[in-house]
Design brief:
single chain, alpha+beta, eleven-stranded mixed β-sheet, three-stranded antiparallel β-sheet, 7 helices, 25% strand, globular, ribonucleoprotein, structural constituent of ribosome, ribosomal protein, mitochondrion, Ribosomal_mL65
């Protein structure tokens, strides 16, 4: 018997309204707010870091060695991370033991229950919806027994990943109320507004072998097994938005929603694979949380996120089995690194007007991600 196929999440969303769907299939609660409280007390100087970043940016932006814009953005993210490490490593000894990887393979697969509705049908002229398990064929990705448990896979690519021997401190414990808050608010009609066939979200079946790869091969006996910070290029999302050709007044919101969806997908992929490499499965669930940080960017706009995996037992929904735990992803609004680049100089907009240099808020956040313990 051949194994079931999994529905593949693309490198960036291929549908313009997929945020809630991504939340559902990963059972992830989204918190949209500033991360200032998460990084409170971490206020490193940014002057020397900004100077180094500007020099790297000028070189990358003027170079013709990149085969695509995605490669250029990935190089920018790698430079930001490298210069950040060089900037603070002399004062933070533990950074010397961290491991940096570039062009990282980040893959995971999982089963998500709750898709029995795919076997419902409503005859023409009838108001009755019937579940027809006998006549309808098994839906792609489901168990042979037609349990409504679909397989999903995300074969993500990260521009850079920083790993350590020890895990990042959790946002909260598994026993706290925070770990059991619902994914959606009460005003969200999950059955009618969230649950659809994966085809509606422009997902396609993946026929390649499924495995767990949180940035490293499990068989490699990797000693630095915890992802602390990762960065991913969103240049492909810019191309998607151009294809969708949304009205100008909606384009920014469209990009932001897709960036949030990608933050949910990328963080869950990393942490789910990481949990599996540490011996946990969807049938045993995790007994401790896994936390990681993520930076998403198209080279100019930056989205910062922090995610925590509280459960992977999302593959079963039946009487007698209750799992109130949910995962969480904190995402803050996009920040622009710069607004204009002319004659070799960078400029960004402030409340007081245009100012030469890079946005210190972005630079500070990158440094804070490194320093967070």
């Amino acid at each position: 018997m051949s194994p079931r196929k999994a529905w593949a999440l693309p490198l960036v969303p291929a549908y313009f309204d997929c945020l809630k769907y991504y939340q559902y299939i990963t059972k992830t609660r989204l918190v949209e707010s500033s991360l200032d409280n998460y990084y409170v007390g971490l206020v490193p100087p940014t002057a020397s870091y900004e100077k180094a970043v500007q020099e790297s940016l000028r070189t990358i932006l003027s170079s013709d060695r990149f085969g695509s814009e995605d490669e250029r953005v990935s190089a920018i993210l790698a430079a930001l991370m490298d210069e950040a490490i060089f900037s603070v490593a002399h004062n933070v000894p533990r950074l010397g033991d961290y491991r940096v990887a570039y062009d990282v393979q980040n893959e995971s697969f999982w089963i998500r229950a709750g898709f029995m509705f795919l076997y419902d049908r409503q005859l023409i002229g009838s108001d009755t919806v019937e579940r027809d398990l006998k006549r309808l064929s098994k839906f792609t990705g489901d168990d042979r027994r037609k349990l409504g448990e679909l397989a999903f896979v995300c074969r993500d690519r990260l521009a850079v990943q920083l790993r350590s021997r020890d895990p990042l401190a959790p946002l909260h414990s598994l026993e706290s109320d925070e770990a059991c808050k619902p994914v959606f608010s009460e005003d969200v009609d999950v059955a009618n507004d969230v649950l659809f066939s994966p085809k509606v979200i422009n997902l396609w079946p993946d026929e390649d072998p499924l495995w767990q790869c949180p940035g490293y091969f499990v068989e490699s006996e990797e000693t630095h097994a915890y992802s602390r910070v990762a960065a991913k290029s969103l240049s492909l999302l810019d191309e998607r938005c151009k294809e969708w050709d949304a009205p100008p007044e909606e384009n920014a919101e469209l990009w932001q929603d897709c960036a949030k969806a990608q933050a949910v997908a990328s963080l869950f992929t990393t942490l789910c694979a990481q949990a599996h490499t540490h011996g946990f499965t969807q049938y045993t669930d995790v007994t401790r949380p896994f936390t990681s940080q993520l930076m998403l960017s198209n080279g100019v706009d930056f989205v910062f996120a922090v995610g925590q995996l509280n459960t992977i037992a999302i593959n079963i929904e039946c009487d007698g089995f209750e799992n109130p735990k949910t995962n969480v992803c904190h995402v803050e609004s996009p920040l622009r690194l710069y607004d204009d680049y002319r004659e070799g100089r960078f400029y960004h907009i402030t409340p007081e007007g245009e100012k030469e240099g890079l946005n210190s808020k972005v630079l500070l956040r990158v440094l804070q991600m490194l320093l967070r313990d």
